[in-house]
Amino acid sequence: MNGNNTLKEIAEVLKSAKTVLLFPHVNADGDALGSCAALTRALLGLGVQCRILIEDKIADNLAFLDDGFTTFDGNIFGAAPDICVAVDNGEPDRFPKRKEVFYTGRTLVCIDHHPTSKPFADFNYIDPAAAATGEIVYDLICAMGAKVDKKIAEALFAAITTDCGNFQYSNTTRRTFEIACELMDTGFNLVEVSNAIYQNNPPQRIKLEAEIMGTMELCGDGKVAIAYVTQEMLRETGARLEDTDGIINVLRGIAGVEVAALFKENDEHKIKLSMRAKSYANVSEVAQEFGGGGHVRAAGCTLEMTMTEAIATMKPHIVNAVNK
After folding, report:
1. Consecutive H or E run containing 112
2. pLDDT of residue 1
3. Is residue 153 a contact partner of residue 23, using CB atoms and an 8 Å limit?
4. Structure pTM?
5. Where would you tag: which of 98, 129, 155, 272 has the fewest CB atoms within 10 A of its CB?
6. What stretches of 74-174 adopt beta strand conformation (E)?
7. Same domain for 191 and 72
8. How many domains in the chain?
């Protein structure tokens, strides 16, 4: 089906199912996992069996969102799911190890907010104007007629606050604040959730941050901050790649920096690049040129090359983005 469906249409499809399997993108962030957790709770409350299929360990600061909802078992229901839903991603290549399971769903759904995403499923709702997929899921849950209780509110707040930089990023809108206020009305513990997300760093993450900052390079007349993390750095600090989440914002927070770029080594010849812009640069254009995507101010891509090659290749493109 081309273009978007309505949330009401998707709500009716989901409510009619017996089994639903959700697919967040690889290395699920707060928006992906929070959106999935909220939708899972809502569907379970309506009598629909729902689970979240993952392929990697959940980040420590997001573990509170999982209440037995996640699974590594693609055959959790003993048969093909009635519905498979891609959440916070617009293509199955964003969850490569689960892609085959996704296509076993009798009906496929996509719920996303990335502007580079294109409708590909039987039912699609892609809204680049939404600050987070969590905003869309909030409206979807309301369309299903499910009650947004404290636990659902916790998950949705986690989704929204992490994807809009705790309400500091340019994607934050009036609607973002309106939804946050409505979630607050449920009485969920804002401080407890915020502490779990933002004040819960293990010591090894702090050590890793110090190592990463030691690699920092300023270029483009100080408008670009580049840093990297290798597998060796992870071994030395005892940290995991997921522990790099948020470190790019430290780079972007440097005075005069418009774009922060963090290169992360998955293996010797696979580098994941994350880019964040502060106010005007379009990093999505840079990412798309190398097969990636994302938002105008937050995007990334994967490079099949060594770390040295990746930095040398991407540096001029990133500098060009801040000088346009």
Report:
1. strand 107-112
2. 39
3. no
4. 0.88
5. 129
6. 83-87, 107-112, 123-126
7. yes
8. 2
